[in-house]
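Researcher: Let's do a round of design. I'm pasting the structure tokens now; please hold your answer until I've finished.
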């Protein structure tokens, strides 16, 4: 899979038509050995768009690991709600007007509902936690910031259980990613 990424002068990225060639990711199916690894994992992170999303969701139901899902820019909240009972870390990029959906979900389901873009907000049990974005000297490339944020957020929360500290760690890693070319 590959994605041709174009950068604007201020470091934000954009994509042209046909920039994504995600054949392997879009059609990925996990084999038994891979499913066995997942079965013994503490946590699994997956993008909603991945071809093996439903395999991972079924494994979560069976093995009860922590599941983090990046819904990215997907906006069908009625569809997303069917997955909410099984997701421990429900993540999305977006604007503040989407938080009403997360607040509603957080009152019904036990997961952390996190939205990160220029700062982050997490809804948990009807309560809102908000952390500003970490300071960045010079933005070079925004590619991978979301993935870096998610990695920091999930790992910090798994280790220490503090939502605000997890958001800060995610923001720190995203800020570091902004300072160089490439996603990682």
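Researcher: That's everything. Go ahead.
Model: Designed sequence:
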């Amino acid at each position: 899979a590959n994605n041709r990424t174009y950068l604007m002068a201020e470091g934000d990225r954009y994509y042209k038509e046909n920039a994504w060639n995600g054949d392997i990711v879009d059609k990925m199916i996990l084999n038994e050995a891979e499913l066995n690894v997942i079965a013994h994992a503490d946590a699994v992170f997956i993008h909603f768009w991945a071809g093996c999303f439903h395999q991972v969701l079924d494994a979560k139901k069976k093995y009860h690991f922590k599941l983090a899902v990046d819904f990215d820019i997907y906006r069908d909240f009625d569809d997303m709600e069917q997955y909410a009972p099984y997701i421990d870390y429900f993540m999305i990029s977006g604007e503040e007007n989407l938080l009403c959906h997360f607040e509603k979900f957080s009152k019904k389901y036990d997961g952390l509902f996190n939205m990160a873009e220029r700062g982050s907000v997490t809804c948990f049990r009807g309560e809102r936690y908000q952390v500003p974005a970490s300071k960045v000297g010079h933005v070079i490339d925004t590619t991978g910031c979301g993935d870096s944020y998610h990695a920091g957020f999930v790992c910090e929360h798994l280790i220490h259980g503090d939502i605000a500290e997890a958001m800060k760690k995610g923001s720190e890693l995203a800020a570091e990613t902004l300072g160089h070319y490439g996603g990682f």
